[in-house]
Amino acid sequence: MRTRPPLAALAPYLWLLVFFALPFALVVKLSLSDTVLAMPPYAPQLDFAAGSAGLKSFFAALDLETYRRLASDDLYLASYFSSLRLAGLATVILALVGYPIAYGIARCSDGARQVLVMALILPFWTSFLIRIYAWIAILKPAGLLNQALASVGLPPLTILNTEAGVLVGLVYAYLPFMVLPLYAVLERQDESLIEAAEDLGCTPTGAFWRVTFPLSLPGLAAGALICFIPMVGEFVIPDLLGGSETLMLGRTIWNEFFANRDWPAASAVAVALLVSLLVPIVLYQRQQAKVLGR
Amino acid sequence: MDTGPDRAVTSKPHVGAVRSGFAPWEDPQARPLVRFEAVTKRFDGEIAVDAASLDIHEREFFALLGPSGCGKTTLMRMLAGFETPDEGRILLDGQDIAGLPPHRRPVHMMFQSYALFPHLSVARNVAFGLRAQGLGKREITDRVEEMLALVKLEGMGGRKPHQLSGGQRQRVALARAIAPKPRILLLDEPLAALDRKLREDTQFELMGLQHSLGMTFLIVTHDREEAMVVADRIAVMRAGRIAQVGRPAEVYEAPANRYVADFIGDVNLFEGRVEAAEGGVVRLGSPEAPQGFTGFVETSHAIGSQAWIAVRPEKMRLHLDPPPAGPNRLGGRVADIGYLGDWTTYVVEVAPGRTVRAACANTARTVERPIARDDAIWLTFAPDAGVVLVE
Q1: Cβ contacts (< 8 Å) between B111 and chain A: which residues?
Q2: Which CATH number does the domain housing residue B358 bear?
Q3: Among A256, A267, B102, B303, who pairs with A31 as Cys (CB 3.0-4.6 Å)?
Q4: Pairing outcome for strands B306-311 and B317-319
Q5: What is the ipTM of this complex?
């Protein structure tokens, strides 16, 4: 039996209580409130002075009205599905781009590997916002990309303020989160397994598909979930690169909260997002438990 | 045991051969299954294998024996195709296999780490090579069943490798490598991960398997006992070179040089100068024994040249009373006694700082020992007990 000091065991729970459970309870409460033209812009508010009667009337005033509104409004549903679609598409592209990168790094010599992993993490030293702004400079109609295309006689592309722009930004920003877990499993893989496969008559390509790839699936699953979950709620990238046409939940929440001052609606969208992400989060947890349990 | 009509049979008596009548390497007409021709391999300028030449014959159980870093594994990996020789050729069935990648070679390897595919069941591991050969589903299932029965793992086909014990994993690795019927099976330290008892049992099972399958086995090991037990012939390697090739009894009883004598078991080496050599008898003058040493030799030795006589501990005779004067006679004092149950090893100090080992089989059931520490003792050995070495 492993014994832990009881106080140290409390620390993560305390952290989760203060920084996750309490704020989340506030958001859930907000999503069940009604909008009012006041300061703050929602009702009811808990009246401590009224005692238990105040508590009773407080809970009686909470309802699912906002959720009903959400479900009946096409705009919310559209932005919900568009978020899932864009995040899903970006995850597929990330897997296709990230796998060869991770595989390549894992097959390098020790020294080169360290440099390449460093290069992968290096962009984090620059502010995320600056890096996304840099993409505007690259993708805008008279930006670097179109200048380069024009110089070799190709027609210009319209990427900024389209879904393609959002995908470019998502793939760029989340690539390290796809590559690193994949790299971790590929680098750990026993080289003698590949030799055994080739020894038993597999071509190098055959050995990859029959041994390397199936054994790297836990890394691929981890990378996909780590990217997919935050991408669904991503705000900055669709806001800066997607233009007004791109519907994503992050922007919807921002609009409801700051533009419409509809705090209950914003909270309800946030709760709906979190609930729908529970499925991939639970999947990720189970997959991690399986890897650790081995 | 079925010896088969194609087996080369010679009429000579075979010293120490496990299988009587099996000695294709003595037949000058026989074409070896595998031939290494002056194969050299360097890694970053370091020489790993140095002009090694070897013949391995069909149905032979051949051992590459040497300490770690002697190049034995590199030699095997070149046959499997994982390394390419810098110089020399490797012939399989008389064909140079230089251009063949590992997956096109009819050679399978059992890896030291077993290298079982962790995502596949035992049955799918064993079927791996068969699938790559493009066999039909029915055939594969039958062959997998057959292989699992052969290594006594019936009914284990559905398990994953991590659900097996070390010994079971070793069997799966073996079954996987022999299932596609390779021309030669390579075993890279196959028993190193097993505990002693299991290792000894498995050695005999490997031999039985090799005999019944009629397959050619090449084993790489650093364990001399393992090599001696399983192999028809042993190649002792040292620093990339082949020091000696021979039957287990040959390398033990007639080592070619001091290195082999020392590597294959305990040995007492006595240094001296050749004083006389005639009629197959050599006399060495040595300060160690008052009347020098004598030994039988087949080759000629120049008078005055330096030589060693190598005597195995079990061939030394112990005397409590001084034996009559003569050659091959040393006196000393018992410095240590190692009682092993079946054997007792006596470490005898014959001169300050110079010890000689003698081993006696404990054939009688007695608890009292006639010899104790610090006893004065005499050691002798017969002229045919020692090997005269010049290298």
Answers
A1: 192, 195-196
A2: 2.40.50.140
A3: A267
A4: unpaired
A5: 0.82
Q: pLDDT tens across A207-238, in order? A: 999 999 999 999 999 999 999 999 998 999 99
Residue A15 lies in a domain: no
- The residues of chain B scoring below 50 in pLDDT are 1-17
Residues near B125 by beta carbon (within 8 Å), at least 6 away in sequence: B116, B117, B161, B172, B176
Interface contact B115-A200, CB threshold 8 A: no
Q: Where do the DSSP E strands lie in A36-93?
A: 42-43
Mean pLDDT of all residues in A177-188: 95
CATH number at residue A112: 1.10.3720.10
Q: In the listed set B209, B237, B253, which residue is the last one of a domain according to the structure?
A: B253
Range of the domain at B60: 25-253
* Average pLDDT of the residues of chain B: 89
Is B303 inside a domain boundary?
yes
Q: What is the pLDDT of residues B43-81, one digit of tens each?
A: 998 999 999 999 999 999 999 999 998 999 999 999 999
Per residue in A84-123, pLDDT tens?
999 999 999 999 999 999 999 999 998 999 999 999 999 8
Same domain, B66 and B130: yes
The answer to whether residues B153 and B282 belong to one domain is no
In a domain, A158, yes or no: yes
- Last residue in a domain, options B253, B282, B305: B253
Pairing mode of beta strands B233-238, B61-65: parallel
Is A51 part of a structural domain of the chain? no
Whole-Å CA distances, A125 to A118, A129, A134, B324: 11, 12, 14, 90
Q: Which residues of B touch A214 (CB under 8 A)?
A: 119
Of A192, A198, A294, which has the smallest distance from its Cβ to B103's Cβ? Answer: A198
Residue A19 lies in a domain: no
From chain A, pick out residues whose CB is under 8 angstroms from the CB of B180.
Answer: 200-201
